[in-house]
Amino acid sequence: MIWWCCSGICRALALLALLFPLQERSCWGLNPSSGDLEKSPHSDPDPWDVPHRNRRSWVWNQFFVLEEYTGNEPLYVGKLHSDVDKGDGKVKYVLSGEGATSIFTIDENTGDIHATKRLDREAQAYYTLQAQAVDRLTNLPVEPRSEFVVKVQDINDNEPKFPDGPYLAGVPEMSPLGTMVVQVVATDADDPTYGNSARVVYSIEHGHPYFSVEPKTGVIRTALPNMDRETRDQYVLVIQAKDMVGQMGGLSGTTSVTVTLTDVNDNPPRFAHKNYQYTVLESLLVQSVVARIKAVDADIGSNAEMDYRIMDGDGPGMFNITTDEDTQDGVIMLLKPLDFETKSSFSLRIEATNRNIDSNFLSLGPFSDTTSVKVTVEDVNEPPVFSTPLSKMVVSEDAKVGTSIGRVSAHDPDNSNSPIRYSIDRNTDLERFFNVDALSGVISTAKPLDREANSVHNLTIFAIESHDPTQIGKGITLITVQDINDNAPVFAIDYETLLCENAIPGQVIQTISAVDKDEPLSGHRFYFALAGPAAGNLNFTLRDNKDNTASILTKRGGFRRREQPVYRLPVLIVDSGSPALSSTNTLSVRVCDCDSDGVALSCGAVAYTATGLSTGALLAILGCIITLLVMVLLIVTMRRRRKEPLILEEERDIRENIVRYDDEGGGEEDTEAFDMVTLRNLNVIRDPNVRRDVTPDTPTFFHYPSASRPSYKSLPDNVVFREFIWERLKDADVDPSAPPYDSLQTYAFEGSGSVAESLSSLESLSTDSDQNYDYLSNWGPRFKKLADLYGNSDSTTVLS
């Protein structure tokens, strides 16, 4: 049976437990069979009842450890002891669970449990551990595993904090006493179920006597009535929260609360002056600003908005006042032109009224104010004014040059009454049809007029003061030109008249009309007739329809294009003007071949075509001619290419490629000589794209079949070269891509008749015979390098 002791008197309690049931609320029984904790049935027995023990031990299953222990030694937690432990060291105590070995340790011999680290209840409030007694030798448990809890006991080590601070709040100005402003809340991390460490009370440190705070709830209220925003609009409060119910030794925290007094409409508008005076020029334009006045309102925002109106004054309709929404100024506007000579001053009475009046503060009103405004008009030198701004005049189209049309008149509105001079704005009379008398203002014609070109003339007349030429007045004069009959009528359009060959006598072939540029007051009336010798022709006649149109009719039938394809009829047109004017217009009539419905198929003269070949035959002949021309061009081109000489003309660039090979020494280091292997291997396939007049960088050895080309190895050297040159000549004759110049190459070849034969290594690449080069070492120091390279080598090795 395992015993737990949670204090220094655990042994005494163990002895008392044998006599009386343990009545502490923190004692629990351990079920040895299961190892689970269960509440003792003897937790609250009658103290005088005789206990009945059932061979089980009473244990403490919950320990308390004070947090934030600052001692130098490990903090003693409790003791574990088993009934099996006889004190002979055979039992070992083992601790496991949360914080075992890292925070809590157990003496495996005595069972004493200690806390080795400083604990923080706010980080972890309790730890669940398991304890077991095992045999020291076999590590087998001698008691079932028991579980207990170590609770960290709280101390007041955390001050109250305001998680939402600092605070911003607002309350309307003029609020009554006790109006709620805002509620502040402080939290304390200490254990609220143990002691007073987390019980907080509130107080105000800064903000008296304007505000107060409720100690338990943290509600801030106004402490003074009728606080005026216009006097002071913001307060900064410091609120303290202290734990331990505010007792001495408690911890505290503070926060700031900024309280802003919001505006209400408790101030009426007031004009700074009861009388205002302004001066304006009489030349001020309509809708211009005359003056700006403002009524001062101590409120802000919508509570300071106001409307202005003109209550009374002289000159009704001359002025208007509106509110500038940005500045709340009253803007006085001019509605009618000013005239110093007519009225030189105006008096107005203006009222300003708040738009949004709060009924709670009507006692502070009235929320309006009035003032007087005097507007004085200042005289300016005004330009001349025409008696009639728009003058209308009429002139006949046939008026003679210098004919007077009418008169304009202007005067100086100022008291000086300066004389006036007149002139025409030539931008409105570019062709100078009119003149105006500078003194009298009489307008006359300067050129003949043409109504058909311009029926109305819009002139701008200047009236200039003689004393001050900068003062210029403007007037408009409209001159209408009256029409006379000076244009003869003509055809309305260019007519295209078609006459079918199968037309019958009396058939209408065209209806004509006329136009006249003139515009008589009674309207146009035109008369039509055939002019001159055409009046008695046998082909056509004209019928006047009496509605400003006429019809052209045929007198006969049987018209033929072959006989006459076109007829021209002179038509006389007379207007009804006074005097009457006329003109002769020619109507062309074309004879056409028409179908049965009278639709023209072909008109005009008949084209005579000779009988012969058809259109298809002509196209075939033309195609043959084009084909022959193309073939001739191809033949000429090919002949020119075949006759192109291989040797260039003298004046063109001629290049030579002379390669000399007459040096017997050098051996493998002789890289400037011509590659003789090329001459010895004449039966290779040559790339046509490779130039044949230079040494190839990498020769390709591929033998032709023996039937296609003779073998040159068996021929004498002179025959080999001769055959090689003839082969190259044949290739050049038939190869269009060969270079257009000769490639001259000279070879000094000793031939096979020499005793030493050829000393060049070029031929060694193509030989298939075995050769011993040891004799080179006997030829002296000049051939020492060759002897080193080729001496004592495998005869089958090919040297390059």
TrEMBL record:
Signal peptide region: 1-29
Keywords for the protein's UniProt record, in alphabetical order: Calcium, Cell adhesion, Cell junction, Cell membrane, Glycoprotein, Membrane, Metal-binding, Repeat, Signal, Transmembrane, Transmembrane helix
GO cellular component: adherens junction; catenin complex
Stretches assigned to the Cadherin domain: 82-162, 163-271, 272-386, 387-491, 491-601
One Pfam family here: CADH_Y-type_LIR
Identification of the protein by name: Cadherin-7
Functional summary from the UniProt entry: Cadherins are calcium-dependent cell adhesion proteins.
A GO term for molecular function: calcium ion binding
GO biological process: adherens junction organization; calcium-dependent cell-cell adhesion via plasma membrane cell adhesion molecules; cell migration; cell morphogenesis; cell-cell adhesion mediated by cadherin; cell-cell junction assembly; homophilic cell adhesion via plasma membrane adhesion molecules; morphogenesis of an epithelium
Cell location: Cell junction, Adherens junction; Cell membrane
SMART domains in the record: CA
Membrane disposition: Single-pass type I membrane protein
InterPro entries: Cadherin, Cadherin-like_dom, Cadherin-like_sf, Cadherin_CS, Cadherin_Y-type_LIR, Catenin-bd_sf
PANTHER family, per the entry: CADHERIN-23, CADHERIN-7
Keyword Glycoprotein attached: yes
Parts of the chain that traverse the membrane: 617-636
